[in-house]
Specification:
Elements (H helix, E strand, L loop, with lengths): L4 E2 L14 E4 L5 E2 L14 E3 L1 E4 L11 H9 L14 H6 L3 E2 L5 E3 L2 E2 L1 E4 L2 E2 L9 E2 L9 E5 L8 E2 L1 H10 L4 E3 L2 E8 L13 H24 L7 E7 L11 E7 L4 E3 H13 L4 H4 L8 E4 L3 E5 L9 E5 L11 H20 L6 E6 L12 E6 L5 H5 L9 H12 L5
Parallel strand pairs: 1-13, 4-18
Antiparallel strand pairs: 2-5, 2-14, 3-4, 6-7, 8-11, 9-10, 9-12, 12-15, 15-17, 16-17, 16-22, 19-20, 20-21, 21-23, 22-23
Helix pairs in contact: 4-7, 7-9
The protein binds zinc ion.
Length: about 400
């Protein structure tokens, strides 16, 4: 079921669970009754906690697998984590790529939605293919994730069969999982490790691909579409490849959204015309890290980890895909120096970068915002509730980051 394609060929009738499942937790899932959020034309919709259960996710290649295998073969006393070529190189070079020991890392087959901003394959294409070597001038490409959490294309007969067989609390997870990679190899978003225009290129390709996918999805009668753009940077926070890459989850199940997004939607609804992000001074500015023409970065007063940074465009926009080129260029510039400033004061290099957006089809007020969350080991009580314990006072964290950032400001 690679690339989220379920056909008569690859679907084995033996176990219906061997498909991507979206499972709503019955202990925290509530039916959406009002017309508040989303249009809810046909199906039942929920908010609450859900999990994607996707067997294919476990099959995705990890950057250091082959090295571990090799060291086992040679009874090597220590595991040596040498740098290996990344699987994405097979895509950018348009041919199979092997590591130094002859293991094939990637076959070069792909479905490319956007090369930079240019549309290539249709988001609902079912034909993975090899491409020509990408031109040097290309900055970033957006691909269909080969190991997705959701099914993108399903043979209608099989879909009927699956839907009939599944117990009512399980749903077939439908959607598009995108990956955006830089054309050349860069490991991080830090000032010292990647040029600014490459980060901007990644953002622009993500935006173009989101718009293309949503347009094609709407034509296929999907609606109420939650979209989550994010970066997992580092093995400890879910990054399985060393090359910098972002992902976008486009959920086409049309059955609602998670409880955290419900909280955001309700909070913005309650604010009405007095949007908190448009009006706040973030604790009288002592938590602000960086304020540019287009963006505000600050340490949030309710951190989920120490040094949790939140940021938002100064313009009241609802979605990542509404950001204009000036805003995306400035975001690239700002993220790059903030990541370096965090590196310089030895904050964990494993970080998540997340964008919180209003779903497509929801006619609700919302102010797009992002989170930069450095990795940290957290405790049990924190897994149970939507609560965190942080040691670092946010205004002190902000002062440290500001001081570290100073040398990168012109
Ligand atoms: Zn606002």
């Amino acid at each position: 079921m690679e690339w989220g394609i379920i056909t008569k060929k690859n679907f084995k009738d033996k176990t219906t669970y061997d498909i991507p499942i979206k499972r709503w937790d019955p202990l925290s899932t509530v039916k959406i009754k009002s017309k508040d959020f989303g249009l809810g034309k046909k199906r039942e919709r929920y908010y609450g906690h859900y999990s994607y259960l996707s067997p294919i996710r476990g099959k995705r290649p990890k950057a250091y697998d082959t090295v571990e295998k090799k060291s086992e073969l040679e009874h090597c006393p220590k595991k040596i984590f040498a740098r290996v070529k990344d699987v994405f190189m097979a895509v950018t070079e348009g041919k199979p790529i092997f590591d130094d020991w002859g293991y094939q890392l990637g076959d070069g087959f792909t479905i490319i939605i956007n090369q930079d901003e240019k549309k290539l394959d249709n988001p609902f294409s079912d034909i993975p293919h090899q491409i020509e070597r990408l031109p040097e001038s290309c900055k970033a490409v957006t691909l269909i994730n080969r190991y997705p959490s959701m099914a993108r294309i399903i043979d209608p007969e099989i879909e009927d069969y699956i839907v009939e067989k599944l117990p009512p609390h399980l749903k077939l997870a439908r959607g598009i999982n995108l990956i955006t990679i830089s054309r050349k190899f860069y490991p991080s978003l830090c000032f010292n490790l990647i040029p600014e225009d490459i980060i901007a290129g990644i953002f622009l390709s993500m935006k173009a691909a989101i718009l293309y996918c949503v347009q094609e999805a709407i034509e296929r009668d999907y609606y109420d579409i939650p979209i989550s753009p994010f970066f997992n940077i580092g093995m400890k926070v879910g990054g399985s490849q060393p090359r910098i890459h972002s992902q976008v989850y486009i959920d086409l199940s049309g059955d609602g959204h998670g409880s955290r997004l419900e909280g955001y939607l309700r909070a913005f609804k309650e604010m009405g015309d007095n949007c908190h992000l448009c009006e706040t001074t973030h604790g009288n500015t002592d938590r602000i890290i960086l304020n540019t023409e287009f963006w505000t970065f600050y340490t949030t007063g309710s951190p989920v980890r120490n040094y949790h940074i939140r940021f938002h465009p100064n313009e009241h926009l609802r979605r990542f895909s509404q950001l204009k080129i000036n805003q995306l260029n400035d975001l690239a510039k700002s993220i790059r120096i903030i990541f370096q400033a965090l590196d310089d004061i030895e904050i964990d290099k494993n970080r998540n970068l997340l964008f919180n957006c209003c779903p497509f089809g929801y006619d609700d007020d919302f102010h797009l915002f992002g989170d930069i969350i450095p990795h940290e080991v957290i405790g049990g009580a924190e897994m149970a509730d939507d609560m965190r314990v942080a040691r670092k006072l946010p205004h002190i964290a902000a002062a440290e980051i500001r001081e570290s950032l100073v040398k990168y400001l012109n």
